[in-house]
Specification:
It is a single chain. The chain is α/β, with parallel strands linked by helices. Helix content is about 40%, strand content about 15%. The strands form 6 sheets. It has a 5-stranded parallel β-sheet with strand order 11-14-17-10-18. The protein has a 4-stranded mixed β-sheet with strand order 1-2-4-3. Helix 6 packs parallel to helix 17 (about 405-420). The longest helix has 19 residues, at about 405-420. The radius of gyration is 27 Å and the shape is elongated. The N and C termini lie far apart (about 80 Å). Bound molecules: adenosine-5'-triphosphate (ATP) and magnesium ion (MG). Adenosine-5'-triphosphate binds near residues 218, 352 and 390.
Length: about 500
């Protein structure tokens, strides 16, 4: 008997439907899986055999052949256990299969027949909708996640026996949705805790206002890490589409919480400086998404930037420019979304001296340390901020300035102006404007033109740097609620290119 069950394989951060064909014929008992399975898929026959028996069904003492089609697509992981088991049970007549219409199945089996959570269910649900499959059978732990796909009927089964009941049209087998998770504890990262550093706080507000890249340079203990970690709290919430986009990536990476709750905040990724190129950009065979993709629509925070290996830093150049990363391997080319906001922090010298006056490093050592950050990389960072060491008076000052809530409101208003202005262009933030859009939306008065021309000459600004200054000026104007760019907006934006000046020195 031949049976077919639909399932899906993960390809990068998307899913492709896979036909699981199971043939059970009389002959010497054997169990063969073909169709480019990896070792986890090949091992599934041991789990499937034991789970079927422990769920109370007879396992056929026949020749079983499982084909995963299309055969040229690599199949990974344990999510094919459930479709293979249901295929065998259909071929032997335990599943009648005709009652619920076209459906797809994913799930890993435990030896006792329980169905375990799998990665990438959101991507599978979206693939089903694209292909006109309106029912998806999932593990109970993935129920909430799958339900986020509009128009998809989700059936969740806790055990193999329940899944068989579902396919046979037994509604009682449908599992109740899992308990809603407890509200996440709110973290207490507030801007009001940061004393002094008004200039850096302003830069963070501008960075959040237009999704600009930011570099904080300053002595140890001045608050760089503290400030950067507070950025996520002032960013606007994800829109409905962005929630699905970011959650799909995190689901494929297995990072969504076990109860399948979708992401409610923008991602904030802070990898350690020992990370490799493939960890940061993505890689492996087949390629897996890296930190830049996990930070898509959120923040990638690189603390102690010059400590990262230089070739790792240089690998950021393409995603920073394109908002995507393309990984070519002998087996094919993968393209991952990577539209993130880079926030980086660095000490001005290797020893982390408290200030320039007290620095015991030689000028050559200092130049070598920040010199690890190449010109093309710095050019892609819109805001360079030099933090002074915190003065004792600042540290004891009782009134520390605006708190997170106030700043978030201003940022939200500026982002709304951008969305309205850019609505016909397909982008949402100033930082993503193309050169042509910069010409169109960032017209400046003649006086500001002269200022920018002088900055290009004296700071050695590149053409890209020039455009990035204009984008930052546009955000500064948006934060001020100004329709047109004025000379003071451009002047403030130019101030944030301090490392261009050092590069010239
Ligand atoms: N501006 C500030 N206001 C209030 N507390 C501060 C400030 N700067 C530093 N601190 C205190 O010092 C601690 C260390 O600050 P932080 O880790 O941000 O320094 P850093 O600049 O990142 O230093 P390093 O270069 O060594 O990483 C903070 O947790 C906080 O308690
Ligand atoms: Mg730090």
């Amino acid at each position: 008997m031949l049976a077919r069950v639909l399932s899906a394989a993960l390809v990068g951060v998307e899913a492709a439907l896979v036909r699981v064909e199971v043939d059970v014929t009389p002959g010497l008992p054997a169990f063969t899986t073909v169709g480019l399975p990896d070792s986890a898929v090949r091992e599934s026959r041991e789990r499937v055999r034991t789970a079927i028996r422990n769920a109370g069904f007879p396992f056929p003492a026949d020749r079983i052949t499982v084909n995963l089609a299309p055969a040229d697509l690599r199949k990974e992981g344990a999510s094919f256990d459930l479709p293979i088991a249901l295929g065998i049970l259909s071929a032997t007549g335990a599943v009648t299969n005709g009652r619920i219409g076209p459906f797809a199945v994913v799930g890993e089996l435990a030896l006792d027949g329980q169905i375990q959570a799998v990665r990438g269910v959101l991507a599978v649900g979206l693939a089903c909708r694209r292909q006109g499959i309106d029912t998806l059978v999932v593990p109970v732990a993935n129920h909430t996640e799958a339900q986020a796909v509009e128009g998809l009927r989700v059936l969740a089964a806790p055990t193999l026996r329940d899944a068989v009941g579902l396919l046979n049209g037994n509604a009682d087998a449908a599992a109740p949705p899992p308990e809603p998770p407890a509200a996440p504890a709110t973290d207490d990262l507030d801007f009001a805790d940061v004393r002094g550093q008004a200039y850096a706080k302003r830069a963070l507000e501008i960075a959040a206002g237009g999704a600009h890249n930011l570099l904080l340079v300053g002595p140890p203990g001045g608050g760089k890490t503290m400030l950067a970690r507070r950025l996520a709290a002032i960013l606007p919430p994800l829109t409905r589409d962005e929630v699905i986009e970011a959650s799909t990536i995190w689901s494929v990476a297995g990072l969504l919480p076990r109860h399948g709750e979708l992401m409610s905040r923008r991602p904030f990724r802070a990898p350690h400086h020992t990370i490799s190129v493939s960890g940061l950009i993505g890689g492996g065979t087949p390629p897996h998404p890296g930190e830049v993709t996990l930070a898509h629509l959120g923040v990638l925070f690189l603390d102690e930037l010059p400590e990262f290996q230089q070739h790792v830093l240089e690998s950021l150049r393409q995603p920073l420019e394109d908002g995507r990363v393309t990984i070519a391997r002998a087996s094919g080319v993968s393209d991952f979304p990577a539209s993130f906001q880079l926030v980086a922090a660095a000490n001005p010298c290797r020893r982390g001296c408290p200030s320039l006056d007290l620095c015991i490093c030689t000028p050559a050592e200092r130049a070598r340390y920040l010199g690890r950050l190449s010109r093309p990389l710095l050019d892609r960072i819109d805001l360079h901020v030099e933090l002074p060491a915190l003065a004792p008076a600042d540290f004891r000052a009782p009134a520390p300035g605006d708190g997170t809530e106030t700043i978030r409101t201003r940022v939200g208003a500026a982002r709304q102006l951008q969305r309205d202005r850019l609505c016909a262009t397909g982008i949402r933030v100033n930082a993503a404007m193309s050169p042509r859009q910069v010409r169109r939306f960032c017209a400046v008065p003649a006086e500001a033109e002269r200022l920018l021309a002088a900055a290009m000459t004296h700071l050695g600004l590149s053409a890209r740097g020039h455009d990035r200054v204009l984008k930052v000026a546009r955000t500064i104007a948006d934060l001020a609620g100004a329709e047109t760019l004025a000379v003071e907006h451009c002047a403030e934006a130019i101030q944030y290119r301090s490392l261009d000046r050092q590069w010239r020195a």
